[in-house]
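[Q] Does anyone have a clean structure-token version of this?
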Amino acid sequence: MTPDRTAHDAPRPALAADVPAVKAVIDAAFHHYIERIGLVPAPMEEDHAANVAAGRVFVAGEPVAGLVVVVPEADHLYLDTVAVHPDAQGAGLGRVLMEWTEDRARALGLPEVRLFTNAMMWENQKLYERYGYEVVERRLDGPYDRIHYRKTVGESPLNSPPMG
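[A] Here you go.
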């Protein structure tokens, strides 16, 4: 897979035709964790077609090189998954996806983004902390040892009260 320059364009809603690419990117991005954590990472087990149909998946690149799965909640935007294909890592696409997620929360009038990662995925922990996410708690969710994060993103200027 060799993503082209469009990998840094704003994510677009995934279509049903994107489901195989969504699965391929998630599998490629998370497969190496299976041995480390001793379990298949939760994103690999998701029903990708259902998430796409529900409008939760946004993809970037042509071919798809990265994606986010987001779920608006009453008081936050839940970032379920962020994945960048290994061939596209290191080129800033992860940052684009994270910034887009924060912008999406603001556009929806939600004051924060929440997410979690497996405690054995230490690369992700460093990444989230570098992007300004704070640890809320660490807890076991079934067989998964997870660290929960949040980041306050404020309101969109479009939703803010007028100044003056």
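[Q] Thanks! Anything notable?
[A] The longest strand covers residues 144-152.
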